[in-house]
Amino acid sequence: MACIEARELRKSFGSTIALDGVDLRVEEGRILGIIGPNGAGKTTALNAMLGLTAYEGELRVLGRDPWSERDQLMRDVCFIADVAVLPRWSRVSQLLDYIVGVHPRFDRAKAEGFLAKTAIQCASKVRELSKGMVTQLHLALVMAIDARLLVLDEPTLGLDILYRKQFYDSLLNDYFDRNRTIVVATHQVDEIEHVLTEVVFIDRGRIVFNRSMEEVESRYLEVMVHPEKAAAARALKPMQERTVFGGSILLFEGLDRQQLAALGDVRTPSITDLFVAVMGCQVGQAQGAGR
Amino acid sequence: MSTPLNAVSESFQAQSVAPAAFPATRALYWSVRRELWENRSIYIAPLAVAAVALFAFSISAIAGIWEKALKLDPAQASEAVAQPYDITAGLMMLTCIVVSVFYCLEALHSERRDRSILFWKSLPVSDLTTVLAKVSIPLVVLPLVTFAITVAMQWIMLLLSSLILLGSDQSVAALWTKLSFFRMSMLLLYHLLTAHALWPLPVYCWLLLVSGWARRATFLWAALPLVAIGGVELIVFRTWHFAALVGSRLIGAAPAFAPMPGDGFPSGPMTHITAGTFLSSPGLWIGLVVAAAFLAAAVRLRRYQAPI
């Protein structure tokens, strides 16, 4: 069964179209990264999946309609919608008490185990914790819930690099297994790149790129072209060309590694470079359509 | 670091042990507790007022108000003896109203303002449960808290005055026989649950609804429509019915309610109407229907609400 299944998902705020017909299918046990520029509709898409916003179109998360069944859905889904949404007035122990009280799948001992590895005290109030510690706390709470789907929307925004690295490390080491699905939306692509199994680029409410990481690795190649072979390389119609110190790098889709090796050093592009290339094509198309 | 295989078997075990769902009352209970954690004024404000009232009472007791009261003829004496108890109880009820009003104006607003609504909504608690937990504060929790603190305060007052009477060589027995303490407490509880919970419920539910809807200045948005309706009525019909209606709901001096017209302050727990009259008054039931409509709207609204 697909964990998330969306068909023709649409949502507009007044005259602004946030989602313009999104089709998405996420199987169980995957880690999906949703990447897009500001205002592309990432948060709206996630909010629709979490039952936080109404939408048009068809959407099923773990077989349920999120908008009408949010409370039942939240037994199997947990999310960190944003940094620092934990109530600032509460004590850490009160949060633990409350979740034990309302969540059938919350394991208090596990949460306390995660917290013991941090500097967070159970008697502290959330307002006394630093931003990084609040995120650690939220992650500890979420990881102690035996959920089938975890949704993260910019969970590490504004944190320093140590916290960010730690966040994804513990997520991967202490939480993820093949029964769980994780969906992450973020700008900080390079930190999650090695974690993902699928990647989706979203732009102006549409999905413009949807591939598994294996496909990315086999389909997309980047060549640091020798200057004398630049013309030959350009003839192969690269998706993108960029100049770096000492040469140019061309990004190709669907070409043979052997063929490209003759032109220069071949490697798999980073998701960031791929994102820039795909978005560049999008802008080109939009301008072409505009004319 | 656990291997994936271990993690799979762990999670499988956890799933087979954990119940699929808790009974709905459990989520309601914990949601009420979280309101008490967040809004400590629910019990701190009545406690503070009780402390001030006790202080004032002890001054007056030392000044000797009892001497005159106990020498009156029996009918007048019991009224005069009960008077300070009525006044302090009235003060506590006023506190109950003030705390309820401010609680309701914040209830669905603060979670949006501090963005914590995103956290609350990530847990398997329905909007209905959350809103019911919030309305239970003015409907059940605050009347009971006010009752408990008032009775405790009146016990201390009684002991205090007994001590003073003992010291001044007067009859303590006269005080205890003239003051029917148990009856007074029961009437107080009845009065709190009817006049301060069920009767003003439409006003509290209106405030809750506004707190879930307004982006800022909840008090303004709650009060302006009432002022506008009252103002239009006054200009067009030269009457005060709407203002009187809202006022009576909040302060509790409805015509069907207060035996003496014009007695705006519900301080005489001895003289209140019977449960039968109260429960059969159409005003009560109309009010409850209106309250239910406001609540239903608040539940629906919370589904759509995002942080401000």
Number of helices of chain B: 15
Beta-strand content of chain B? under 5%
Major protein interface: A-B, 44 and 42 residues
Unreliable spans of chain A are none
How many domains, in number, for the residues of chain B? 1
- Helical region count of chain A? 11
Helix content of chain B: over 70%
Oligomer: heterodimer
Structural class of chain A: alpha/beta
Tally of discrete structural domains of chain A: 2
Terminal Cα separation of chain B, in Å?
A: 40 Å
Structure description:
The complex is a heterodimer of chains A (291) and B (308). By secondary structure, chain A is an alpha/beta fold. Chain A has two domains: 203 residues, P-loop containing nucleotide triphosphate hydrolases (Rossmann fold); 76 residues, no CATH class. Chain A has a six-stranded mixed beta sheet, sandwiched between helices. In chain A, strands 11-12-10-13 form a four-stranded antiparallel beta sheet. In chain A, a hairpin with a 2-residue loop joins strand 11 and strand 12. In chain A, helix 5 runs parallel beside helix 6. The longest helix of chain A is centred in the last third of the chain and has 20 residues. The mean pLDDT of chain A is 88. The N terminus of chain B is likely disordered. The longest helix of chain B is centred in the middle third of the chain and has 41 residues. The two termini of chain B are 40 Å apart. Chain B has one domain. Chain B is built from 15 helices and no strands.
Secondary-structure blueprint of this entry?
The complex is a heterodimer of chains A (291) and B (308).
Chain A: E1 2-13, E2 16-27, E3 31-35, H1 42-49, E4 56-61, H2 70-73, E5 77-80, H3 92-102, H4 108-116, H5 131-143, E6 149-153, H6 161-175, E7 181-185, H7 189-192, E8 198-203, E9 206-212, H8 213-219, E10 220-225, H9 230-234, E11 240-244, E12 247-253, H10 257-261, E13 264-267, H11 271-290
Chain B: H1 4-17, H2 24-38, H3 41-63, H4 65-70, H5 74-107, H6 110-113, H7 117-120, H8 127-167, H9 172-178, H10 181-198, H11 201-213, H12 218-237, H13 241-251, H14 275-279, H15 282-304
